[in-house]
Amino acid sequence: MSTSWRGFASDNYAGAHPEVLDAIVRANAGHAVAYGEDDETARLADLVREHFGAQAEVFPALNGTGANVVALSAICRPWEAVICAETAHINVDEGGAPEKMAGLKLWTTPTVDGLLTPDAIDVHAVRSGDVHRSQQAVVTVTQSSELGTAYCPEQLGRLADHVHGLGMKVHLDGARLANAAAGLDVDLRAITTDVGIDILSLGGTKNGALGAEAVVVLDPGLAHAVPFLRKSSMQLASKMRFVSAQLCALLTDDLWRRNASHANAMAQRLLEGVKQIPGITIARRVDANAVFAYLPRDVTARLQQHYRFYEWDERTGEVRWMCSWDTTPADVDGFVAAISREMGA
Amino acid sequence: MSTSWRGFASDNYAGAHPEVLDAIVRANAGHAVAYGEDDETARLADLVREHFGAQAEVFPALNGTGANVVALSAICRPWEAVICAETAHINVDEGGAPEKMAGLKLWTTPTVDGLLTPDAIDVHAVRSGDVHRSQQAVVTVTQSSELGTAYCPEQLGRLADHVHGLGMKVHLDGARLANAAAGLDVDLRAITTDVGIDILSLGGTKNGALGAEAVVVLDPGLAHAVPFLRKSSMQLASKMRFVSAQLCALLTDDLWRRNASHANAMAQRLLEGVKQIPGITIARRVDANAVFAYLPRDVTARLQQHYRFYEWDERTGEVRWMCSWDTTPADVDGFVAAISREMGA
Amino acid sequence: MSTSWRGFASDNYAGAHPEVLDAIVRANAGHAVAYGEDDETARLADLVREHFGAQAEVFPALNGTGANVVALSAICRPWEAVICAETAHINVDEGGAPEKMAGLKLWTTPTVDGLLTPDAIDVHAVRSGDVHRSQQAVVTVTQSSELGTAYCPEQLGRLADHVHGLGMKVHLDGARLANAAAGLDVDLRAITTDVGIDILSLGGTKNGALGAEAVVVLDPGLAHAVPFLRKSSMQLASKMRFVSAQLCALLTDDLWRRNASHANAMAQRLLEGVKQIPGITIARRVDANAVFAYLPRDVTARLQQHYRFYEWDERTGEVRWMCSWDTTPADVDGFVAAISREMGA
Amino acid sequence: MSTSWRGFASDNYAGAHPEVLDAIVRANAGHAVAYGEDDETARLADLVREHFGAQAEVFPALNGTGANVVALSAICRPWEAVICAETAHINVDEGGAPEKMAGLKLWTTPTVDGLLTPDAIDVHAVRSGDVHRSQQAVVTVTQSSELGTAYCPEQLGRLADHVHGLGMKVHLDGARLANAAAGLDVDLRAITTDVGIDILSLGGTKNGALGAEAVVVLDPGLAHAVPFLRKSSMQLASKMRFVSAQLCALLTDDLWRRNASHANAMAQRLLEGVKQIPGITIARRVDANAVFAYLPRDVTARLQQHYRFYEWDERTGEVRWMCSWDTTPADVDGFVAAISREMGA
Known about the structure:
The structure is a homotetramer.
Chain A: H1 18-27, H2 39-52, E1 57-61, H3 64-75, E2 80-85, H4 89-92, H5 97-102, E3 105-109, H6 118-122, E4 135-142, H7 153-165, E5 169-174, H8 177-184, E6 199-203, E7 213-217, H9 225-232, H10 241-250, H11 255-275, E8 281-282, E9 290-294, H12 297-303, E10 310-313, E11 318-322, H13 329-342
Parallel strand pairs in A: 2-3, 2-4, 4-5, 5-6
Antiparallel strand pairs in A: 1-7, 6-7, 8-9, 9-11, 10-11
């Protein structure tokens, strides 16, 4: 591939949006108190309250795994556990960090589309008070999910009510929260604060930042623990202004939505293009910036010589195509043409 | 304080050097494979081999606590322990991360100047093979130390030989390795590779980066574990190119030395200035970019109304003044004048 | 219930066999070196070699959860994981100890009968070398299983070969190893050493001891770590002679087999009796000392007023009846009559 | 040494008192509900309330390290730490279990005699609320201490008040609580409940049990967590009646005091005997059942050919002689004569 290229492997492969870079450069003036007592972090706190409501408290973190582990640790006592989808990032893609760093037991449940249902949760909402069972204390949902699907606000609200009714809290892994909100055409709070989410991991990196995530606490009772857990979990940035500045940029002038909507639109364009190609089956609903499809193995292999993307499931031939804030219509059209060609269409 | 100010609280309060920012901007072109398979990280690997020797392997990490915990975990088996100075950052300033995240037992030893000696190590080099005692497996040294002192190469070499003779490994916490090397006027490898350090945490953040640290493995036998530990320890950056680019900038055209030498020179200027003021006792040797002094409490209080710096020890009145890559001679002179004024000189 | 009663709730409800108590009394003469350097523990080492082969090393532990966690920790490096059945004791009945104490990630797999198959293992034998996935390093099987079933030697041998072929080790949770061996009418080594098990948890408590378990290492490469892990995992008995004496008693004059065979025979008697009662469905194969059946909820409730046993699955009405070394034919017959009565037969 | 011998190495080398064995035999009738819902454990709860006061709750555990870790975990949140003496068992003799199993950071402090003072605690009662420092939440005292000394009730009361005034809790490691109470000629509650101890580890093993320890909660706010922590910390006995029966025996007819007083008296006899021997220096106050003395190395070596005891400090030649419930006056007199002989007196 050439020095400067774009593919469909991951929104983590995209670079930083110019407005994010500008914010970093602007933040680089003189000294600033380290570890969060700086102007950028103060401004971020205001912006987060604007977007998530007056009770929201924000704690910048260093990566998504870190934000998830800190947030879940703020809820779980040492003998407690997390209910999650089998496909959840914390289960399959965090190197065991929840178990290894925080001692979190995960009760996993299969899903058809990466989205949890009350019934799926009920399977693990058993043996409360039984010391032999690691006690479920929190349900984590990913929005948008690892499979490119999103919960609508009503669905999320019903789920949160159900979880609360069982005496548990709800954590939301929002590594792609922006894509979900953009796809649903709602505000960030409509799928978090307003539906009863207690704590969330707010992602910036996949949506145009260099590397910036945060824990956002919506249940004020959980806020006390987070600063301590963030530090002991090795997620506290010393020059925090540079992390906060990135998140500020995303929350300013709706950059978060502009980037996410664009990525989603590119995914729809890709979906529409690919749908026309005979022999390809779209594997999942496209609610955000990912398209999943079943492709013949040889087609995948040939395509990957020119385009980066992941085979999602070796056994079924399912592939994942991610669009990002910087994907262009021409990128999509070129890719569709290449797929079409390789499919012999 | 004004919007743009500089103080003497911490090298973490300083911003990023323009060459570092430029490197980030340059790295922001098109897509790059996430998690380290990018060009910047490849270039960093070359630069690290140049500076530390052909066997050196580099693994960028997100912060200093993370780099330390990953590096120490690469050595210690679950029943093993770390010998360190009582004043070591891992003991007093990492929120218990070594114990809490990695289960590392710390055997601490008092020192006069933050530097370990063979005798101090011997105190803990006991009961080998006794299951009742968490088995010491590694000695960690900080260079330059948390007290502004540095080991000279011979001292470090003798220490490493002693540690190896006891069957242990040596880790070096190099959050301020550049300041030590600059102060000693030696290359980076002269106080790491050449003296027998097995693994080190290489700091960039305090020396002009936004946020960039790395684990550098010098004993090849330790390299296999690091990628897995880095991920499960929540220290793996997705858009790693932006972390690597910062470290590349520091290792290019000797920026690391230019920044560190300047900070050290400012500390010497401050030392010289303060020495002239009657009633002030310099507390420690100044080998790097920190000056420690005993100050009357009321003087400290009045000074802190205009200048940021830390009281190091409430009981003795010892204060710490850190210089950074961006401290100016005028900053120092103004501060010396202010101290002098408050001391009634 | 009267002061002295027997039920069908658990083999943990049964007391200690007189020969075990005698052994404890005999061991209580004068002083003995603590922590395992005593004559009883030396004798146990000999007995374990007799039963499991010359390479076997035994490390007494305090309970079954402890033995499992120590054994699995001896295999897994900090970033590694365990494959187990969803119904495995380590997954559902150890309060999260594997995750919380040892940071072990569990990759669980559904089974029809509590027994793993090569195919079930293959589902998790993926993404080897991928740092984002906690790396599977060991498969744990329970023999006899939590559902009262047992692997035959050939089945276990094929499974072990398959696991070894994938580069992993095999751990056997033998809390009821005696019941499996008695049920299969084989020696202990026939379903451990001879089929390629690498390490096992040997249970004594459920088979007539007061409280005595052990880690038995069959792969000599794993032995070094166990003494250290046992201590740091809080499983080292100070007056170990009293734990070892119990295990010695079980391994002497085939007490282990006498106890287990009796319990199994009582389960068969119960099975035969219950089979005759119209309206009861036997839920699972009876290979050891447990009988599982589906019972109408009201029948269960009425029976439990006079007999202790557990409802296994609230949703299906499945119940578990355990027989123990001290269950008498009269106990069984009385119970069958009571069930029959309550079923209105 | 002969098959049946007694030495001065450890109270863990002694066997079980006949009344303890009798209690076990008596407890062995029919079935009993596992995991603590049995008659013996209920009776233990009554006895503990009698001895420690109405609010006391008891949770039997499997060994002393386990009881300590569970008790401390009941106090500390994941970012919190424990203040202890450098010589504390949890620091030097538990294989790192506090750090490795519970993530507990230990802030250690040197002492002259194994006993903490308010001043020693104050050294670590700093930086409250500072996330960079693992936050001290509990002070643990050992009574009687690892050096054979004991706090008097007033001393302990003042210490507890001081600790509470600092917002922390007090844990007491009572592996030898009986020896302290016997030595001070007070009830168990006089040095626990009545002086403000919040939670304690109650030892039985060293005082005539086979293996029986317990967590006793005196601050009711801490009780909720203990059952969960005990299970996940692998300290829950299945056939708990046999652990509880041992503790019941010790708390019945003052067996605890009879055993401990006897051991203490033997230590005093040994002290008096040794004092007469020229050339031996007694190293520490003898408040309980341990005598520490400085002995020439060659004398130690010759004595150890016939008597088991530990060299406590290789560097100073200090040795430890422990008496137990079964030490006889003749044992002591014979040992004194042997020492005298070897000293050439």
